[in-house]
Each structure stands twice: as structure tokens, then as C-alpha cells.
């Protein structure tokens, strides 16, 4: 009898855990969308298509869906003004830095752009952002 109660309890705990993790993930993407709309949309546009020759597209960008999370984290935090070739094209505008973003906000907005429009890459965890930011500080204090 006691055993059955314990089993019910464990089953309940597992269900709660799964439910909560699904809820948190949805919340992250929703929050990422809000951040995108207030801080990125003006340049990268609602459809992630950017503006030809000015602002790089995020939809369909090989860099946005790549596994180099560290590069993406640094671009969000420090801005980006390298005028390098991106998927064969160049962009003349400068991306503004976002020094006020917390690791959670960076992970939310990166998860959003990596899973939106035609992009189907993995989400970015807060831990991945923290690792990238550590490297970022080191290169900055040099
Ligand atoms: C002021 C306009 C502007 C804003 C605001 C802006 N970006 Fe950008 N973004 C750019 C430009 C311009 C580039 C390309 C810069 C270059 O080529 O040097 C870029 C590049 C990028 C890249 C690299 C794309 C690639 O293919 O490598 C990512 C990722 C990115 N932006 C994400 C974001 C996110 C997320 C936000 C909001 C937090 C944001 N940007 C806000 C203008 C902007």
C-alpha cells in the first residue's frame, strides 16, 4: 500500500516536472519574441528578412542557425560592425550593442531567432550564454 502511494507520488512529480519544463520553454520563446519586437525588429524586420544592403537577414542565415553560439552571444551583447561577407552579401548599417541584456534575455532572443520563420535550430540555454560571456570579458580586459 505504501509502495503504491510512493509510485503515485513519483508519477505526479514527473508529470509536474514535464509540464513545468514545457511551460518555461514556451515562456522563453514568448519573451524572446517580445525582446525581438522591441529591440531588433526595427532593423531586421518582422519577417526576419532584414533590409537589402543595409541590415542582414536573420531568416535563412547560416550563421544564425550555426552551432557557434559564442559568436551569436557576442554579437547581441557587443553589437556588430564588421562589414564582413554574410552568406555572400555585405551590409552597411551598424548593429547597436545591448549591454543591458541579462544572460536569460540573450538566451530568449537567440532561441527566438533560431526557431522562427524558416529557421529550425536548437534553442540556446542560459548556461551556454554564460560560458560565452566569460570568454567575452577576457577578450575585453586585454
Ligand atoms: C540598428 C540596426 C540593428 C538592430 C537594432 C539590431 N541589428 Fe542585428 N544586425 C544589424 C546589421 C547591420 C548587421 C550586420 C552587420 C555587419 O555586417 O557588420 C546585423 C547582424 C546581426 C546578426 C549576425 C547575422 C549573421 O548572418 O551573421 C545577428 C545574429 C543579429 N544581427 C541579431 C540581432 C538581434 C537578436 C537583435 C536584437 C537584440 C539585433 N540584431 C538588433 C543591424 C541591427
Q: Topology of this structure?
A:
Layout: H1 2-39, H2 41-44, H3 69-78, H4 103-115, H5 126-141
Bound molecules: heme C.
Task: Give an overview in words.
There is one protein chain. By secondary structure, the protein is mainly α. The protein has one domain. It is 57% helix and 0% strand. The chain contains 5 helices and no strands. It has helices spanning 2-39, 41-44, 69-78, 103-115, 126-141. Helix 4 crosses helix 5. The radius of gyration is 19 Å and the shape is elongated. It starts with a helix and ends with a helix. 21% of the residues are buried.
Largest sheet: none
Write down how many β-strands occur, each being a DSSP E stretch of 2 or more residues: 0
Named once each, the bound ligands are: heme C
Oligomer: single chain
Q: How would you spell out the order of helices and strands? A: HHHHH
Q: Which percent band covers the strand fraction?
A: under 5%
Low-confidence stretches: none
Shape type: elongated
What portion of residues is helical?
55-70%
Mean pLDDT, rounded to whole units?
A: 93
Distinct helical segment count: 5
Q: Cα distance, first to last residue?
A: 65 Å
What structural category characterises the helix and strand content?
mainly alpha
Using the CA coordinates, give the radius of gyration: 19 Å
Tally the structural domains: 1
Amino acid at each position: 500500500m505504501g509502495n503504491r502511494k510512493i509510485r503515485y507520488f513519483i508519477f505526479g512529480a514527473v508529470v509536474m516536472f514535464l509540464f513545468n519544463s514545457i511551460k518555461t520553454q514556451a515562456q522563453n520563446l514568448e519573451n524572446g519574441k517580445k525582446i525581438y519586437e522591441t529591440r531588433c525588429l526595427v532593423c531586421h524586420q518582422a519577417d526576419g528578412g532584414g533590409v537589402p544592403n543595409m541590415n542582414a537577414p536573420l531568416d535563412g542565415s547560416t550563421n544564425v542557425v550555426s552551432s557557434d553560439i559564442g559568436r551569436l552571444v557576442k554579437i547581441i551583447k557587443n553589437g556588430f560592425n564588421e562589414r564582413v561577407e554574410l552568406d555572400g552579401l555585405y551590409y552597411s548599417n551598424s548593429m547597436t550593442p545591448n549591454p543591458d541584456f541579462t544572460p536569460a534575455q540573450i538566451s530568449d532572443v537567440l532561441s527566438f531567432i533560431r526557431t522562427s520563420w524558416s529557421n529550425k535550430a536548437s534553442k540556446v540555454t542560459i548556461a551556454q550564454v554564460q560560458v560565452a560571456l566569460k570568454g567575452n570579458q577576457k577578450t575585453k580586459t586585454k
